[in-house]
Amino acid sequence: MTTSRIFHPRHFMTTTTLLLLAIVAATANAQTIANLQVGDEICAEGFVLDTYCIERTTLLDNPTVFSLENPELHSVHCLVDVNSCFSSPFEMLVNVGSQEYARGWRFDDAGRQAMVTLGRQVGSQTLGCTECEPDGGDPTDVAFTRQQEGLRAVVKAQVTSLKLEDDLKVPELTLLADPIHTNTTISTIPILDESVTDPCQRFYGMTNILDILTPEEQSQLFTTETPASFRNLRLIHGSCMLIGWGLLLPNGMLVARYFKLHPSSNSAWFKFHRICQPTGLLVATVGWIIALVNFDVFSDRDTRFVHGLVGSIVMALGWLQPLNAYFRPHISPDHPKTTTRIVWEHYHRGAGWFCFFCSLIVIVLGTLIIPRPNDRLGFQSAFVVCLLIMLGNLAFMKSDSKQDLRGFCCTRKIPPAEEPKEKDEDNA
């Protein structure tokens, strides 16, 4: 095609349209945040943390500390020794000037392995890091204390995703060089500029990516959403369990135990029992499902594991109670209790009380593993209130001085000449 034909109005318009469409398509497929796009080489610096500890919201080696609030307290030992940690993806937490660090970057598999290697190089066997390289220096030296102060690193990397079109919680990086520990007394990488303190300029002669991105762009990239959402789930889980096993279920059991008077022609106690038990069990089940879906408590043998295991056993046994109550052997005035009925009564009562006492243990353990002090104190106080309510009900029901009121609530006086008749619900 000659030059004159290319610039013919019809051909020129066609060519221009195709070029514009190609540019639009390329722009649509590229992930871009003003000053950053996929493929850019960047320098980033921050604390390296495993996704497992981030998602559980508290540090595995220090359950009272929130992962995004104090990542410097996450030990290198936990990062490279504990299977739950080093087998999960690694992320770099960045300081965006708020109370919580942001989930800045996620490393690919090669980057995760490079961080594991770096952690094992700077950690100390003297201080308990079994997978770290042997050391022979002074344990008081800064090189040995790093494993107790988190793994802070600086990386030169290429952006592979900005999470704009991918189902990622954080953008992803692939390393272009080995990561550098920011403690210069440990790092063997030559320092390019001694006059600066920023690790990116100091080691790579590059500008830290946080200094390039505006606050609005940072908010597009980074997130601190996980701790808040998980905290809400924990609060809902704990509230459901406390209402179910700390209030409704035990008081329903106490009513069945002490208000079941013989003879009786009024079944108010039985109705109360049938309301409290299913309601409490349903509320507790909501909390149980939240825990099973969102919390990983079975990976490590600690207090959380015991809490989750015993709690699941209690819930399973708890659900057997309404099932065996539905299929209970019935009795009538004309047919005395059968052996099957007696066995069922002993099992139903025994299983109920077993669940009750185990649930108290589970609740106590649950209040001990709540990470935020204010939340922990709130649940412990609420549990004490539930115990006081139970004790108050127990004292009321056992008090001889309340016989008249108790009889008014649950029985009617039967003339001496009237023969008492046993009702089925009296033994449910």
Automatic annotation (TrEMBL):
It is found in: Membrane. The chain crosses the membrane at residues 235-259, 280-299, 351-371, 377-396. The keyword Heme does not apply. Residues 200-400 form the Cytochrome b561 domain. InterPro entries: B561A, Cyt_b561/ferric_Rdtase_TM. SMART domains: B561 (SM00665). The keyword Transmembrane applies. Keywords: Electron transport, Membrane, Signal, Transmembrane, Transmembrane helix, Transport. PROSITE patterns: CYTOCHROME_B561. Residues 1-30 form the signal peptide. One of its GO terms (cellular component) is membrane. PANTHER family: OS09G0557700 PROTEIN (PTHR47281). This is Cytochrome b561 domain-containing protein.
